[in-house]
Design a protein that fits this description.
The protein is of the alpha+beta class. The protein has a domain of 221 residues: Jelly Rolls, CATH 2.60.120. It contains nine helices and 15 strands. Strands 4, 5, 6, 7, 8, 10, 13 and 15 form an eight-stranded antiparallel β-sheet that branches. It has a four-stranded antiparallel β-sheet with strand order 9-14-11-12, with no helix packed on it. Strands 2-1-3 form a three-stranded antiparallel β-sheet. Helix 5 crosses helix 7 and helix 6 crosses helix 7. The termini are far apart. This is hypoxia-inducible factor-proline dioxygenase. It comes from Chanos chanos. Its main location: nucleus. One of its GO terms (biological process) is cellular response to hypoxia.
Length: 363
Amino acid sequence: MEKSNTLDSDRDRQYCELCGKMENLLKCGRCRNSFYCSKEHQRQHWKEHKLICKEAEKTQVTNQPVKTPQQPQDDKGGSEPLSQRQGDVTTEGRTKDLINSAKEGDSKQPGDSISNNAKPNEINQMNSHLPKLATEYIVPCMNRHGICVVDNFLGEEIGQCILKDVTALHKTGKFSDGQLVSQKTDSSKDIRGDKITWIEGKEPGCEKIRFLMSRMDDLVRHCNGKLGNFEIYGRTKAMVACYPGNGTGYVRHVDNPNGDGRCVTCIYYLNKNWDAKKHGGLLRIFPEGKAQFADIEPKFDRLLLFWSDRRNPHEVQPAYATRYAITVWYFDADERARAKEKYLTGSGEKGVKVELNKPSEPS
């Protein structure tokens, strides 16, 4: 496989198309638009990817040598070895005003939408607005205020599909009481009252959740290198959370108070016709050094980003209707490496553990 030194982050979607992983990626050598963490994941995803891959191949400039297939293409998604015809993967390098911005009137940005029958060129159109949204709105908003709200992120149709995935997942009974990193006892119920489950993205019935995670990844990737001094590299799984509507919330806390590596908290809300006066459930953020606070309503198809560290203590006020949200935390490469080193050497602060094989939960 040929190494690639090109970091065309404004064009490439640098996450594994199958599992959403962002580290140590390989690029499809045929369309050069899609990434995988391994050849095995490329093979597993080929049945879905081949239509987009073929469409991309048609639009590529034809002044390059024609590649001769080494093996026949498997249109049935079989387990044939990777070939140039199917698209060899090549190594890809690593990508390197607060209260007002939280108000609905100032936060609305065009979100992308996708139908179940969307064609490859329609998907490309939906991707095209992300760089502008990232660089012209999210980056300046985050750097100035540390909080950013994007409404209508995915559109009504895909948002409804994600909600269906989440409600179906909730009905399976796989949600458990939200826990704290340093304390996993019944007393944590006095601090947070949500029910949660962790999703990698490749679980059956979670396809639309995986799509949401990929859009989050795309957006953050376009911001990377411009958000403070962070170099974002990797993220947690998605935490799907439900407040059951019995008046439970989450007391004031900080997601990352002790340097576990998380730098950006990214939350997507799924609550249709939410009325904060009736249903409560506001996310109230208390920005460090400011006398004001920001109240974020958990509205349907709303995306919220904020710094995960001590700059943004926040609380979830009691919710009196079922309240769904999906949260992903993005890691700063240097801080995450230091956190892992502390964990391995045992020199970290007492009571703080950074899990190496699963994402940390908020404190």
